[in-house]
Amino acid sequence: MGLFSRKQNTVETSAPAAVLDVDPALAALTGDYAIDPAHSSIGFTVRHAMVTNVKGSFTDYKGALRLDGSAPHRSTATIDVTIDSVDTGIKDRDAHLRGDDFFDAAAFPLMSFRSTSAEQLGGDRYRLTGDLTIKDVTRPLSIDLEFNGSATDAYGNERVGFEGGTEILRSDWGLTWNAALEAGGVMVSDKVKLTFDISAVKTAPQA
Description:
single chain, 207 residues, mainly beta, 8-stranded antiparallel barrel, two-stranded antiparallel ribbon, 6% helix, disordered N terminus
């Protein structure tokens, strides 16, 4: 059963319409949550030199979720990522990504996402749509996510988990730097895969 699934009451055939009830266990998840960076990850994968993939992540970010168990379309998410925290495991490459050729972190220190809609695709699968801002460019972005469940951790925190991803063309956000290869092709692909593995802690009681 999905996070925001609803079950239908049995009604007599003479009833004018079916009445939908919210599963109490799912409705109890409604509330505000803070993303826990210590147990989450935001990653990316990009093709390098046409033959291999380079993977990286952002290690510093803040985010909040508002989950609505009775009306999933009212659920929201926001996240701000610190560009300086980009980490591909190579210091020189990370410095290049922070510089003017790519993110220009000195002028644009944050990458942000603000959701505008949410929908259930079926079962535990959801789609979150919103606006992604990189540098001075804001464009729409949809992220497909799977709900991994909920639990109370050893410290009494109520947690929910999601994982998923999407693909973007970095040129849509003005990240166009590249270098031609002697054998043809380019150094860095335009397509970038984004991945999300999110653990969030409930911060407020159900409204």
